Amino acid sequence: PHLAYLRTVPEEGGARALFVSHDEQAVKNATATSEKRRALQAAGQYRPAAWALVWPRRAQMAWALRHKDKND
After folding, report:
1. pLDDT, tens only, 14-65
2. What does the radius of gyration of the chain's CA atoms come to, in whole angstroms?
3. pTM, to two decimals
4. Of 59, 55, 65, 44, which is closest to residue 17 (Cα–Cα)?
5. Distance from CA of residue 39 to its chain's centroid?
6. What is the mean pLDDT of the chain?
7. How distant, in Å, are the alpha carbons of 24, 29, 32, 55 from that of 50?
8. Are strands 16-21 and 50-54 parallel, antiparallel or unpaired?
9. DSSP structure class, residue 46
10. Which candidate, 71, 68, 63, places its Cα nearest to that of 12?
11. Which of 28, 40, 55, 72, CA to CA, is 20 to 30 A from 47?
12. CB atoms within 10 A of CB 41
């Protein structure tokens, strides 16, 4: 939740999150720093997934122009 902006900001700017896979590397990445995720995954209540974030250049540029003054 505290890192949700890493997905929501690009999506609000036209990006799309695409499912890639459920694999061993996704489990390692998702559980590396979270005891809660490790416990949920071990209990079968959480299934980590790999995702790709695709943000077309044109949409990125439009987003950047809309937010130009906010970053100065």
Report:
1. 999 999 999 999 999 999 999 999 999 999 999 999 999 999 999 999 999 9
2. 16
3. 0.77
4. 55
5. 21
6. 94
7. 10, 9, 14, 16
8. antiparallel
9. -
10. 63
11. 55
12. 16
